[in-house]
Amino acid sequence: MKTVGYAAHSSEANMVPYHFERRELRSNDVAIEILYSGVCHSDLHTVNGDWGPQPYPLVPGHEIVGVVQSVGADVTQYKVGDQVAVGCMVDSCQECDQCHNHEEQYCREGMTGTYGFPDRISGETTQGGYSKHIVVREEFVLRIPEGMDLSKSAPILCAGITTYSPLRTWGVKEGSRVGVIGLGGLGHMAVKLAVAMGADVTVISRSTKKETEAKALGAKGILASTDEEAMTAAANAFDLIIDTVPTAHDINAYTPLLDVDGSLVIVGQVGPTGELNSMPMIFGRRRVAGSLIGGIAETQEVLDFCAKHNIYPECEMIQMDQINEAFKRLEQGEMAHRFVIDMSSLDVA
Ligand SMILES: [Zn+2]
Ligand SMILES: [Zn+2]
C-alpha cells in the first residue's frame, strides 16, 4: 500500500514529505487511515539521534488515532470504520512471561517500537504516525471509546499511558500526595490523571510561572524547586513523585520531598542522572524507580478511564508542514500541552 508521511533523512535534517509503502495485510493485520498524530518529545530525541544512530529515513509518531480501513482475514476484534488508536509499540514476542502478564513493553525479546525498529517478520524498519496510513497487527490496536473526541485523544497513547501506569503501579488513590516534576506533555497528563484518581497533586517546577496553568489542570499549586525555603518546608510531603523532565537533570533535590517509603519515578529522561545521594534513600526507605509506557491492556484502560472521566490532553492542532517549527518550540522548553498533527493537512498528491 502506497502512503505518504514526513520523514527525517538524517539527525541534522528537517522533516520533509516522504512517499513509502506500508506492508500488504497479513491475516492478523489492521490497516488504519490516520486522522491525528501527537508530537512526543521522544520523536524529537529520536530523529535528532540523541538515543543513538537511527535507520533513516525515519517517520516518527507514536500517538496515533484513526479509522480502520481494512482488516486481514483472521481479524476478529475490529472492522472497517472502527475508531482505533496505536501507541508506542506494534509487536512483541507474545510468548514470554512479560507478554503473558500483559506487559509487552518489557517483553524479554524486546518490544517492537512503532517507528525505527525492525519488523519481527520482514525485518523492514517500522515507520510511525506522521503519515496517512499504518498497518498494525490486531493485538496492538486500541479502541477509542464511543463518543470520545478523536482530535484530542492522540496524546493519551504515550503521554497518557506513560503517566497513568506508574500512578496505578504505585497505588495512587483518594488522598494520595503526588508531586509532578515538569509541566509539559507528560506532566500535564500526570496532573489530570492523578487528580481524577482523587490525589492531592502539586506541580514541582523551576518557578511558579505556570501556577495558573497548574491550578487549571486541578493541581493545588506549584512548588518552585529554586525556592530553597519552600523546598525545605516540603520535606516528606509526597507519597509519590512522577519525574517527567525530558532532559538530563539532578534528582537529588527531589528525593527528600518524599515521605518514608515514598517513590520518585522517572518517566521523562532516558539516560544518566548524575550521582545519586543514598542518604535520603536510607534514612526514609525512599526509592528511585523508572517506568516505561504501559502494556496494551493498560493502554486500553487509560483510554477508557479518560473517556469515563472526560479527561483530554491539552492539544494545539498543527498542520503537517508546521512540524519543524513545532520541534523547535518543543526544544525551547516545556509547554503544558501537546502538539497534535491534523493528518488531513498532508496532501497525498
Ligand atoms: Zn512518546
Ligand atoms: Zn515477550
TrEMBL record:
<dbReference type="InterPro" id="IPR036291">
    <property type="entry name" value="NAD(P)-bd_dom_sf"/>
</dbReference>
<dbReference type="GO" id="GO:0008106">
    <property type="term" value="F:alcohol dehydrogenase (NADP+) activity"/>
</dbReference>
<dbReference type="InterPro" id="IPR002328">
    <property type="entry name" value="ADH_Zn_CS"/>
</dbReference>
<dbReference type="InterPro" id="IPR013149">
    <property type="entry name" value="ADH-like_C"/>
</dbReference>
<dbReference type="InterPro" id="IPR011032">
    <property type="entry name" value="GroES-like_sf"/>
</dbReference>
<dbReference type="InterPro" id="IPR047109">
    <property type="entry name" value="CAD-like"/>
</dbReference>
<dbReference type="InterPro" id="IPR020843">
    <property type="entry name" value="ER"/>
</dbReference>
<dbReference type="Pfam" id="PF00107">
    <property type="entry name" value="ADH_zinc_N"/>
</dbReference>
<feature type="domain" description="Enoyl reductase (ER)">
    <location>
        <begin position="7"/>
        <end position="341"/>
    </location>
</feature>
<protein>
    <submittedName>
        <fullName>Putative zinc-type alcohol dehydrogenase-like protein</fullName>
    </submittedName>
</protein>
<comment type="similarity">
    <text>Belongs to the zinc-containing alcohol dehydrogenase family.</text>
</comment>
<dbReference type="InterPro" id="IPR013154">
    <property type="entry name" value="ADH-like_N"/>
</dbReference>
<dbReference type="Pfam" id="PF08240">
    <property type="entry name" value="ADH_N"/>
</dbReference>
<keyword id="KW-0560">Oxidoreductase</keyword>
<dbReference type="GO" id="GO:0008270">
    <property type="term" value="F:zinc ion binding"/>
</dbReference>
<keyword id="KW-0479">Metal-binding</keyword>
<keyword id="KW-0862">Zinc</keyword>
